[in-house]
Amino acid sequence: MAKSRLQQLTELGQSVWIDSLSREMIETGELERLIRDDSISGVTSNPTIFQKALAGGDWYDAELRELSPLGDTSEIFFRLAENDVTRACDLLRPVHESSGGLDGYVSIEVDPTLAYDTERTYEQAVRFHSDIDRPNLYVKIPATRLGLPAIEDAIAAGHAINVTLIFSLQRYTEVVEAYLRGLERRVSAAGSVDRVNSVASFFVSRVDSEVDKRLEQVGSPEALALRGKLAVANAKLAYRHFQKAFSGERWEYLAAKGARSQRCLWASTSTKNPAYPDTLYADGLIGPDTVNTMPIETVRAFQDHGTVRQTLSEGLDEAERVLEGLEAVGVSYDEIVETLEAEGVQKFADSFAELKAGIESKLKTLEVVR
Question: In angstroms, what CA-CA distances link 240 with 10, 165, 266, 337?
Fold first, then answer.
């Protein structure tokens, strides 16, 4: 039988994960089918995804009744999420083992309101790893300035971390440095690093959504010609840094101890602008040692008509010209990425607040007296 497009991606060295998780996906066998039929080898989630899952039906009602005595809606959510993630980890455990620990991961995110609190972020990351206690768990920590020390400390302690909400090339450089320092600290303390894993989640489509608005405000032919180009260019330049950072003497020392490179993960890869191809952020970001986390709709679109070709190392000169072109038309790259990081944290915090309000509303609907 001919191999599917996602199977071909896997052969090129790119793993495909999905960006959603729900009790319904687990109970109906949909997640198991995606693993079996679509070569899906990982799952990520966030408060927005869980909020939609909780509001979408009665899948959590029985457990909500059981957890209602806890009182704290944040804690109720964490228990619900931990149960879903634990079950998903178990479903993906064979993938984790057959890939030698490279894939088969499920991600759970720390409370987004802690994005600027280093100590509490680290404490919650440790809590999730302790509660879920699965070798194929990733805990997501936002790549804010105050998130970086928590990321380094978690790596030094031997925990698997998905570094999320990366938008800028400078911040990505700092994320890689935090990972390397964490590994070096662990080696210095005589700890093993062969089971320490991490991915660096670069957000993609949101970049084009933000910059396109500004280019349209400028309105010149030169500005309009740059629409829909920054997100892929940004990711390609990040991948170039990945290749440089995980080579050379410093990395070779760690690799000799069993360390693994921190793969780039492309997140937010659905196409927001209907004028762009629906596989834009899949076709343009293919390369070895990477992960593409796709929404279900993008998975289906790529299986149907995606183009399988290694593209991440192509057009690097053009990618640099895109960044130069932005500055030339008066659009600041630094301002764009700073805005996106702040908005990304706030959006997740808002979703977390909606999630807690949704739990409170559900408990009232279920006539749970607390």
Answer: 20, 19, 14, 19
How far from 296 is each of 80, 134, 260, 277, 302, CA to CA, in Å? Answer: 22, 25, 29, 16, 10
Residue 370 in this model has a pLDDT that exceeds 60: no
Please tell me the predicted confidence (pLDDT) of residue 368: 59
Average pLDDT over residues 285-299: 96
| Domain region containing 173 | 5-362
Task: Read off the pLDDT band of 47 (50, 70, 90).
Answer: confident
- Residue where the block lists tokens 């971390």: 161
Backbone angles phi, psi at 12, to 5 degrees: -80, -5
Residue 369 lies in a domain: no
What is the count of structural domains for the chain?
1
81: in domain:
yes
Sequence-ordered alpha helix ranges (H) in the chain: 5-11, 23-27, 30-37, 47-55, 61-67, 73-98, 118-132, 147-156, 169-188, 205-218, 221-224, 230-245, 248-256, 280-283, 296-305, 316-328, 333-365
Does residue 348 fall inside a structural domain?
yes
Catalytic residue among 3, 140, 244, 356: 140
Tell me the CA distances in angstroms from 163 to 150, 166, 331, one per residue in order.
10, 8, 27
- Tell me the mean pLDDT in the region 234-256: 98
- Cα dihedral 187, 191, 41, 18 sign: negative
Average pLDDT, the chain: 95
Is residue 328 domain-resident? yes
First to last CA, the chain: 57
| pLDDT tens digits along 331-358 | 999 999 999 999 999 999 998 999 899 8
CATH number of the domain bearing residue 11? 3.20.20.70
pTM of the full structure: 0.95
Whether 172 and 244 have beta carbons less than 8 Å apart is answered as no
pLDDT value for 334: 97
Question: Is 364 considered catalytic here?
Answer: no
